[in-house]
DNA sequence: TATGACATGTAATCTGTTACATGATTAG
DNA sequence: CTAATCATGTAACAGATTACATGTCATA
């Protein structure tokens, strides 16, 4: 079996399955949070779960509690955990920042429980490195937009992008500080 | 023919076709800008153009310049222009802010040329109205994340979202100010 | 016991991705 | 002339959306 390409929805499911859940549980969580971007329709989630099970990344067991409705609980297999970790730890490129930001944030959100606080901090550093050249690239496009022939709304759209990535860079530094403090506290505890 | 659902890629093409272009031109623009989110592969763009033509929203004419390669130039039809305008002017809901932000920004970027500066300002006001309750909803989730059982990375992800929407709200006000200044200047010119 | 919410799914359709194919034109 | 690039596409496939289908359990 070659590595098998898993779409974003699949990884979102893997990440959520760090806590064993039924398809219905997952759907509820997806539709009530921003994860609904990855789809919250049964026609997407159930087939995706079946594919993950087919590929040996999760395993479902039918729960037979007395007086309970039939529910199938899915759990990560060892293979599923390692696939999830490998996906989280993927290096972040300039292109990712532009097109897969949501996925990057999802990886970060999962990183601490699936791996460690150190892995979370490493992801943030990787993001910061990708962010710097990306922001520079955006800023370089600004002078061309100052041409009066370019409509104001097009220039403002670019400015919106620049601001949002600046804000993301600030958050990255803020988040890194928190992990650094945590690290120091942990060392302090040992003394 | 019922209104015919047009996917995001279709609207992105309609917007870009405010300037008549060939499929190849469009592909180049898409792959060199952030529009690549809507796909830059020929297998998506050419079929999408054909669908738009089938629905009477654009019309292609083969260009026969001497010593030029065969190129088909697509233009918006009257129906295409009105479909584009109607899409741009769609009201913005709280849900849109969470899941279709990219599309909203695309609509804004097109708004001034396809409609007017007034329409751009109206879109910004609509965005601002949707943003306020959405931000409130995000902020309400924060206390639950302060529970030490919740991993830091999950809380930080939420904070990232809050910050990015705060920054978007600031940009909205900044952009609105610019349109208001423009409006005053226009009135001043008439005096 | 009937109504509605729970839990799971399927089928038709559409769109996008990937990878390949084709001819025409320009550069070396 | 031949290699690259321009400009246009096609075919096979995977995945998502929408809408519907099924049975189970709680409650009124």
Q: Any chance you could write out the topology, listing elements then pairs?
A:
Two copies of one chain form a homodimer.
Chain A: H1 8-16, E1 21-22, H2 23-32, H3 42-54, E2 58-63, E3 71-76, H4 78-88, H5 94-99, H6 101-114, H7 117-145, H8 152-190
Antiparallel strand pairs in A: 1-3, 2-3
Helix pairs in contact in A: 1-3, 1-6, 2-3, 4-6, 6-7, 7-8
The structure holds a DNA duplex (28 and 28 nucleotides).
List keywords for this structure.
8 helices; 3-stranded antiparallel sheet; mainly alpha; globular; 7% strand; 191 residues; homodimer; DNA-binding; 3 strands
Please summarize what this structure is.
The structure is a homodimer of 191-residue chains. Chain A is mainly alpha-helical and 191 residues long. Chain A has helices at 8-16, 23-32, 42-54, 78-88, 94-99, 101-114, 117-145, 152-190; strands at 21-22, 58-63, 71-76.
Low-confidence stretches of chain A: none
Oligomer: homodimer
Determine the fraction of residues in helical runs of chain A and give it as a percent range: 55-70%
Query: What integer is the average pLDDT of chain A?
Result: 91
Which strands sit side by side, in order, in the main sheet of chain A? 1-3-2
> What is the H-and-E element order of chain A?
HEHHEEHHHHH
Termini separation of chain A (Å)?
49 Å
Overall 3D shape of chain A = globular
Q: Using CB atoms under 8 Å apart, which protein chain pair has the greatest interface?
A: A-B, 34 and 34 residues
Query: C-alpha Rg of chain A, in Å?
Result: 21 Å
Secondary structure class of chain A reads mainly alpha
How many helices of chain A? 8
Q: What is the number of E strands of chain A?
A: 3
Indicate the proportion of strand residues of chain A: 5-15%
The largest sheet of chain A, given as strand count, sense and whether it forms a barrel, is:
3 strands, antiparallel
């Amino acid at each position: 079996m070659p590595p098998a390409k898993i779409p974003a929805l699949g990884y979102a499911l893997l990440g959520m399955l760090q806590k064993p859940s039924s398809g219905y549980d997952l759907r509820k969580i997806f539709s009530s949070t921003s994860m609904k971007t990855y789809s919250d329709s049964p026609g997407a989630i159930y087939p995706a779960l079946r594919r993950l099970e087919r590929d040996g990344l999760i395993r479902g067991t039918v729960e037979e509690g007395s007086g309970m409705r039939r529910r199938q609980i899915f759990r990560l297999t060892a293979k599923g955990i390692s696939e999830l970790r490998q996906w989280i730890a993927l290096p972040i490129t300039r292109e990712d920042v532009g097109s897969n930001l949501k996925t990057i944030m999802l990886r970060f959100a999962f990183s601490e429980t699936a791996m460690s606080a150190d892995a979370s901090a490493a992801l943030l550093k990787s993001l910061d490195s990708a962010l710097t050249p990306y922001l520079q690239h955006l800023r370089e496009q600004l002078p061309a937009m100052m041409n009066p022939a370019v409509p104001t709304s097009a220039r403002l759209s670019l400015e919106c992008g620049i601001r949002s990535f600046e804000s993301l860079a600030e958050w990255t530094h803020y988040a890194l500080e928190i992990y650094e403090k945590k690290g120091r506290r942990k060392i302090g505890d040992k003394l």
